C-alpha cells in the first residue's frame, strides 16, 4: 500500500517547471512596469511644472513649447516679483453684431476685464474672477502670432456681413496648403478663439437680451504702466505720462449662443460689479 506523501504544495511546484514560479513572476513584472511608468510620468510632470514656475530664463524659454499645455489655468508667473514684475495693464473687450430690418448693427464695446476687476476692488478677499480674461490675454496673443501671415489674413474678417462659419474658419487655417506644424498651431489657436468668443457672446447677450447676436469679435488692449521716472507726479500727470495703449482687434466670428443659466449668471455678475 502506498503511504501518503509529505510533500508540500511548494515542493510539488518546484518539480513542475514553469508552473507556480512563472505564475508568481507575471504579476510582479506587471506591477514593476506599472510603477516605473507612474514614476516616469510623475517625474516628467514635476520637471515641466518646475520649468513653468521658475523665473524666466533660457531654460524655461526653451521648454515653453513643452509646458504650454498648462495654460491658462495651471501656469505660474512672476508678475509681482523680479525679474518680471507687472509692466502693463491688459484688457479684453467684446463687441457683437445683430440684425435689424435686414441690416447688421454693432453694439458698443464692453470692457469685460474692467467688470471682472470690479469683483476684486469690491472684495479684497474673494474668488479669482478678475483673472479670467487676464489669463486669456497672453494665450490669445501668442497663438495668433504663431499663425502664418496667410492664416491670419484668412481669418481677420473686418466686415460682420462676411462672418464665416466656424467650419469655414477651421478650413481656412488647417486647409490642404498648411503643413502639419501649421495645422497644429491652428488647432491650438482655434481652441482659445472658440473659448473667448463663447465668453464674448454671453457677455454681450446678457446686456442685449432682446436681440439675437449674429457675430462677435474681441479686442486685446495692452497699456504700459507709468515710467518709473514719472511715478511721483500728480495723478493726472502720471496718467498722461503713460504710453498709448496697443490694441489688436480680432476678426468677426459666428456667435456661440449660451444657455439660459449662463446668461443669468453673467447678467447677475455684470450687474453687481460694473
From TrEMBL:
It holds the Pfam family DUF5819. InterPro entries: DUF5819 (IPR043857). Residues 231-241, 265-274 have a biased composition (Basic and acidic residues). The keyword Membrane applies. Keywords: Membrane, Transmembrane, Transmembrane helix. The chain crosses the membrane at residues 33-54. Residues 1-23, 231-274 are annotated as: Disordered. This is Uncharacterized protein. It comes from Aeromicrobium halocynthiae.
Amino acid at each position: 500500500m502506498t503511504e501518503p506523501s509529505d510533500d508540500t504544495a511548494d515542493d510539488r511546484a518546484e518539480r513542475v517547471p514553469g508552473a507556480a514560479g512563472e505564475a508568481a513572476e507575471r504579476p510582479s513584472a506587471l506591477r514593476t512596469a506599472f510603477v516605473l511608468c507612474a514614476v516616469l510620468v510623475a517625474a516628467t510632470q514635476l520637471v515641466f511644472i518646475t520649468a513653468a514656475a521658475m523665473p524666466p530664463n533660457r531654460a524655461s524659454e526653451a521648454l515653453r513649447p513643452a509646458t504650454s499645455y498648462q495654460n491658462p489655468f495651471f501656469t505660474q508667473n512672476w508678475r509681482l516679483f523680479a525679474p518680471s514684475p507687472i509692466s502693463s495693464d491688459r484688457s479684453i473687450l467684446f463687441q457683437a453684431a445683430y440684425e435689424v430690418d435686414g441690416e447688421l448693427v454693432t453694439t458698443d464695446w464692453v470692457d469685460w476685464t474692467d467688470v471682472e476687476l470690479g469683483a476684486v476692488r469690491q472684495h479684497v478677499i474673494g474668488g479669482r474672477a478678475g483673472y479670467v480674461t487676464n489669463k486669456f490675454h497672453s494665450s490669445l496673443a501668442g497663438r495668433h502670432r504663431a499663425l502664418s501671415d496667410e492664416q491670419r489674413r484668412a481669418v481677420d474678417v473686418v466686415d460682420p456681413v462676411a462672418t464665416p462659419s466656424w467650419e469655414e474658419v477651421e478650413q481656412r487655417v488647417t486647409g490642404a496648403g498648411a503643413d502639419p506644424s501649421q495645422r497644429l498651431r491652428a488647432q491650438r489657436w482655434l481652441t482659445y478663439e472658440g473659448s473667448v468668443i463663447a465668453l464674448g457672446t454671453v457677455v454681450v447677450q446678457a446686456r442685449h437680451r432682446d436681440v439675437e447676436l449674429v457675430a462677435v469679435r474681441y479686442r486685446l488692449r495692452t497699456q504700459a504702466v507709468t515710467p518709473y521716472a514719472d511715478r511721483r507726479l500728480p495723478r493726472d500727470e502720471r496718467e498722461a505720462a503713460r504710453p498709448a495703449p496697443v490694441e489688436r482687434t480680432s476678426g468677426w466670428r459666428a456667435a456661440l449662443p449660451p444657455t439660459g443659466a449662463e446668461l443669468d449668471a453673467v447678467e447677475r455678475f455684470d450687474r453687481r460689479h460694473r
